[in-house]
Amino acid sequence: MREGSGGAPPNLLVIVSDEHRRDAMGAMGHGVVRTPHLDRLAAEGTLFTNAVTPSPMCVPARAALATGRHIHATGHWDSAAPYDGTPRSWMHALRDRGAEVVSFGKLHFRSGEDDNGFTREVLPMHVVGGHGWTIGLLREDPPPFAGAAELAADIGAGETEYSRYDRRIAAEAADWLAARRPDAGPWAAFVSFVTPHYPLRAPAEFLALYDAARMPLPHAASPDELSDHPEIRRLAGFYDYQRHFTGTSLKEGIAAYFALVSFMDACVGSLLAALDASGLGGQTHVLYISDHGELLGDHGLWTKQVMYEASLGVPMILKGPGIPAGRRVGTPVSLIDVAPTAAGLFGAGMEGLPGRPLTDLAREPDDPGRTAFSEYHDGGSSTGTFMVRWSHWKYVHYVGLPPQLFDLAADPGEVRDLGRDASEAAVAARAEGLRRLHAICDPEKVSAAAFADQHRRIEALGGREACRRADFGHTPAPLTTSSP
User: Fold this and answer.
1) How many CA atoms lie within 13 A of 297 on its CB side?
2) Where are the alpha helices (DSSP H) in 313-423?
3) Which residues are within 8 A (CB) of 101 and not within 5 positions of it... i.e. 6 or more apart?
4) Where are the beta strands (DSSP E) in 247-371?
5) Which end of the chain has fewer surrounding CB within 10 Å, N or C?
6) What torsion, rounded to 10 degrees, do the Cα atoms 109, 113, 118, 122 define?
7) Where are the alpha helices (DSSP H) in 116-160?
8) In which region does residue 413 sit, left (phi positive, over 0), alpha (psi from -120 to 50) or beta (all else)?
9) In this structure, are residues 102 and 120 in contact, taking their beta carbons and an 8 Å threshold?
């Protein structure tokens, strides 16, 4: 077991939000959203400015977060293939080293009946029925997704099951943190909020911080800026959130999202205050992340599922002993890097992981040439989608379809797709992107394996009609108070 500050046992507090886009934070220079507690955390720690999700969808992203492995390596492809305790998670590794490992809130794993690696799960949210969102399995000739209408239908001020759930998570976790003592053994707490995930209804005191009429309009959402890529068009047709918004409700929805970010930030603040009160701040590493981003109308799209930065990018802040304060790291990083970070802090063995400890990356010079990787094999997609990002380039590979390529330095808004551009620089970047992708996986074989596994699960669940019954937009908050 490694030691923290002053020879004390190490502690780790991982705070996870749901659907928090990377740029929606004061520390990232956002001019509207208010996140004082996250900004303080960034000032006291290291902010990773180019962090991405392993998959822009909740369930596979969280499986990768737990295991430290790419989703094609574990088979947790989609929203109906939740983490079930295998392969071994970083939580298992820490528990095996004698640490108390407790979760609070959303996990989106298969079930609390599985051994997910925690010593206790408090207020856990798992996937619906142990199966999850099975309509997403129907990628070939998908049925209409009726749940898309709910995003624009529920906007404004008020409490929702999610905000009430997050208040309970924050209270339970804060009480637990405040009760920790410096002479206790090592521990890790995984505190997972569900906001700012929609419904786009925010507590009134936070919505009052934002004037809907003054909200910025979505980026690259005009008809002449919409992508003509066939897979983007297909996904936009399946997740057709945009058509349910009016000009007024669109700005109200953006204001509500920012208000939910501020609400979640306040929940984070209560955890940091409890940690300070415990006297354990000096020996505790604190990591803030989200599972994926939120498009918020950018490119004419909402929620996630695509490889644009608003969907793909996640916030990531690390604070703790030996971590530089006020540093901004531009090295591409991923949620894949969390498992080796946690294992390294506790001296726990997790061999063969593709990621690297964030504790090391926070102290090293920036490495813009490092590859960040993501993939998508979930609802609405007709083929496997793979993203590699390095330096200022982003290459998106669609099996059987044209690629996309973006120069993020010259075109940070991703308006100009260079996927079919004939310039020497674009041709070379596409070749380099394909080389980096093949160094990670064979996209054609991976895509075929995902479809084959999904076909098998469709039959096991009772066929297409049985899968169609899971037509919901978001997982209900649990009614239970705690597990034993």
Assistant:
1) 23
2) 338-346, 358-361
3) 91, 94, 95, 117, 118, 119, 187, 188, 190
4) 284-290, 316-319, 327-329, 333-334
5) C
6) 80
7) 150-153
8) alpha
9) yes
The tens-digit pLDDT sequence of the chain (484 residues) is: 565 545 567 899 999 999 999 999 999 999 999 999 999 999 999 999 999 999 999 999 999 999 999 999 999 999 999 999 999 999 999 999 999 999 999 999 999 999 999 999 999 999 999 999 999 999 999 998 888 889 999 999 999 999 999 999 999 999 999 999 888 899 999 999 999 999 999 999 999 999 999 999 999 998 888 999 999 999 999 999 999 999 999 999 999 999 999 999 999 999 999 999 999 999 999 999 999 999 999 999 999 999 999 999 999 999 999 999 999 999 999 999 999 999 999 999 898 999 999 999 999 999 999 999 999 999 999 999 999 999 999 999 999 999 999 999 999 999 999 999 999 999 999 999 999 999 999 999 999 999 999 999 999 999 999 998 876 667 888 864 443 3
Cis peptide before 36 (omega within 30 of 0): no
Structure tokens at 257: 């999202």
Give the Cα separation of 356 and 336 in Å (integer): 8
Q: How far apart are CA 30 and CA 261, in angstroms?
A: 12
Closest residue by Cα to residue 189 from 179, 200, 202, 199: 179
CA distance 242 to 235: 12
- Give the number of other Cβ atoms within 10 Å of residue 288's Cβ: 28
Q: How far apart are CA 262 and CA 210, in angstroms?
A: 10
Single-letter amino acid code for the residue at 304: K
State the Cα torsion 34-250-218-21 to the nearest 10°: 50
- 0.85 exceeded by the pTM? yes
User: Would you state the structure tokens that stand for residue 194, as one six-digit string?
Assistant: 């569900």
Asked if residue 188 lies in contact with residue 14, where contact means CB atoms within 8 angstroms, the answer is: yes
Contact (Cβ atoms closer than 8 angstroms) between residue 50 and residue 326 = no
* Integer angstrom CA distances of residue 3 from 6, 283, 323, 345, 378: 8, 8, 15, 8, 41
**DSSP assignment of 386-398:** EEEEETTEEEEEE
User: CA-CA distance, 54 to 460, in Å (whole number)?
Assistant: 27
Both structure tokens of 8:
């004390």
Spatial strand order of the sheet with 404-407 comes to 372-376, 385-390, 393-398, 404-407
Residue 119 is classified by DSSP as: S
